[in-house]
């Protein structure tokens, strides 16, 4: 009897014929671990000067994108889409510079930015995955999923920690209205294919995680419950629902921040539905004038096994006394920096983040302790924070508990979530 060999069968044979380094096994003490321990101390102290590198780098490989989502701040208009799709991807020499200088210190790289990561040239993606294997650095990705194929899936498996598919819809009709793409069915199939590859993870203790994201707006809010049901059916590891970021005046009518009569009942219903489905979910806070809730952070535990060069973290004095957890926290100032495809470095991921350097002219170590970042750290928990910190959407969504470092999938979905929003934090400072 003839047995038809599927593409999955062929690829599984290819996978097991290779012996890639995996980040899934327990690691010995190394540079990454030493840096991570010091990074946590800096954060607890709110240190102004940080001798340890951040634990994560948000890396933009390209500004190009294959979608024109209506709410996107960089591809939402035809002119923006055309301009950004003409931009050049990150230079491979800059990528190698980062891999040599900072990858060995980092727990993870997050591929996110103004474009779609998988729009980067394939040679660049495969080169990055190899560099991450070499330095035992984990990989997080935020993607629309339309360009992800089996070759890329298998290439990134050895280092993949967390991948988030931005869908924003439960039907192909709404998907087209919001994301201007007819690829809904193919993206769903891609998610299924990737989920099927979890059996090839080299450790049962910690496999890669698949998340779905949903930018909540008037156009799609009626599909939120169906979206959660779809996520449960796909057996993903979690769902992240956030408020809409308004980049264009035309999008102002789409936000639900000023519509508690719509938002609050929907969030409460979604919380009950997620609990019934046994689905890990992060939901926006209810709109209320009296209560603030801090949620737990989506931080991935990265494990590795191979040795890295035993460089020493520079020894510099830390602030003397750790502060209590009641202070204002930040997911970026002590944990993360953002590097764009141009080499420009930004302080964080908020809408008004200041440009703080360029890796073509300064080392990342110099930029990490530049005057602007030190000022932002010093002023964060005061009555006079940096302007970027006083109107920050990351601070408003409040899903980072910087001290605990726990995965948001552990969140109790039935916990109360009430908040007074600073509406201006969800509006771009460069509307056009």
Automatic annotation (TrEMBL):
<keyword id="KW-0408">Iron</keyword>
<dbReference type="InterPro" id="IPR006638">
    <property type="entry name" value="Elp3/MiaA/NifB-like_rSAM"/>
</dbReference>
<keyword id="KW-0949">S-adenosyl-L-methionine</keyword>
<dbReference type="InterPro" id="IPR058240">
    <property type="entry name" value="rSAM_sf"/>
</dbReference>
<dbReference type="InterPro" id="IPR050377">
    <property type="entry name" value="Radical_SAM_PqqE_MftC-like"/>
</dbReference>
<keyword id="KW-0479">Metal-binding</keyword>
<dbReference type="GO" id="GO:0003824">
    <property type="term" value="F:catalytic activity"/>
</dbReference>
<dbReference type="InterPro" id="IPR007197">
    <property type="entry name" value="rSAM"/>
</dbReference>
<keyword id="KW-0411">Iron-sulfur</keyword>
<dbReference type="Pfam" id="PF04055">
    <property type="entry name" value="Radical_SAM"/>
</dbReference>
<dbReference type="Pfam" id="PF13186">
    <property type="entry name" value="SPASM"/>
</dbReference>
<protein>
    <submittedName>
        <fullName>Radical SAM protein</fullName>
    </submittedName>
</protein>
<dbReference type="InterPro" id="IPR023885">
    <property type="entry name" value="4Fe4S-binding_SPASM_dom"/>
</dbReference>
<dbReference type="GO" id="GO:0051536">
    <property type="term" value="F:iron-sulfur cluster binding"/>
</dbReference>
<feature type="domain" description="Elp3/MiaA/NifB-like radical SAM core">
    <location>
        <begin position="55"/>
        <end position="276"/>
    </location>
</feature>
<keyword id="KW-0004">4Fe-4S</keyword>
<dbReference type="InterPro" id="IPR013785">
    <property type="entry name" value="Aldolase_TIM"/>
</dbReference>
<dbReference type="InterPro" id="IPR034391">
    <property type="entry name" value="AdoMet-like_SPASM_containing"/>
</dbReference>
<dbReference type="GO" id="GO:0046872">
    <property type="term" value="F:metal ion binding"/>
</dbReference>
